[in-house]
Amino acid sequence: MRYRILLFAAMLLAPLGAAAQPLIQSQEGIALQNEILQLQQQVQQLQGQGGNGGSSLGTSAPPSSSTGGAGANNPLIANLLTQVQQLQAQVQSLNGQVSELKHEMDTQNAQTQKQIGDLQFQMTNGGTGGAAAASAGAGAAQAASSKPQVQLPSPPPAATAPKDPKAALKAALDAYNKHDYTTARTLAQSILTTNKQAPEAYRAQYLVAQSYAAQKDPKSAAVAFYSTYNMNKNGTYAPHALLGLASSLTALHQNQEACETISSLNSQFTNPSPGMKRDIDAVATRAHCQ
C-alpha cells in the first residue's frame, strides 16, 4: 500500500514539474522549481526505503479495507497534496504577472517610440530652447514628417556663389529683395555650408527661413525658423525667428504649438517694437490663442 501512496504522489508532482518548465528565469520561478525538485527527491527516498523493507510492487498482497482507509488519511499524502496545490497556485499567479508585465512593456515601448519621434527635431538642431519653444519645435517636426520632405535644391556652382561670406550674403539679400527667393535661399545656404562659423551665417540662416516663408512652404520655414532661434537664442533675429515659427505652425494648423511659441516670445522679449507687436497679435488671433 505504501508504494501506491508514493506512486500517487509522484503522479501529482509530475504534471507540476512539466508546468514549471516555461517559467521565466526569475527568483520566484527558480525557487518554485527548487521546491518541486526537493519534493520529488523526498518521494524517491521514500521509495528506496520501502524497497529496503523487502516489499515488492509485484508481490504485494491486496490491501485490506482498513489498510486502504489508513493510506487515504496518511499525513504524508495530505502534506504533499497541500504543497502541490500551493505550488500550482503560485505558478498560476506568476504566469498572470508575466502577462501583465508584457502588456505594460509593450505600452511603454509604444510611448517611448512616440517621444523619440517628437524629440528628434530638437536633438538634430542642437539643444532646446524654453519649454514652449521646444514643444513648438516638436510640433514642427511632426508636421514636417506627416508628408514627404521637400528636397532642398543643390547649391549653385562655385562660379556663381561668391566665396566671401559677406559678398554671398549681399548677393542673397539682393535676390530676396527682387523676390527671387530660390536664389536668395540657395546663396544663404551656401554660406551655412562653407562658412558656418562666419558672422554672416546667423543672418544667412534667418534668410533661409524668410525665403521658405515667402515661397509658402510652412513646413520647411518652421524648421528653418527654429534653427535660427537655436543658433542664437538672444540674438537680433531670435524674436523674429519665434514669430516666424509661430506663423508657420499656424499655417500648418498646429495652433496649440503656435500659441505656446507666442507665449515664449512674449515672456522672453517683453518690449517688442510697435510693428512687431501688431504682427504678434495678428498671429495670436489666427491661432485662436487665449
UniProtKB/TrEMBL annotation:
Residues 47-73, 139-166 are annotated as: Disordered. Residues 1-20 form the signal peptide. It comes from the Bacteria. InterPro entries: TPR-like_helical_dom_sf (IPR011990). Keywords: Coiled coil, Signal. The keyword Membrane does not apply. Residues 57-67 have a biased composition (Low complexity). Residues 77-111 form a coiled coil. The keyword Signal applies. This is Uncharacterized protein. The lineage of its organism: Bacteria, Pseudomonadati, Pseudomonadota, Alphaproteobacteria, Acetobacterales.
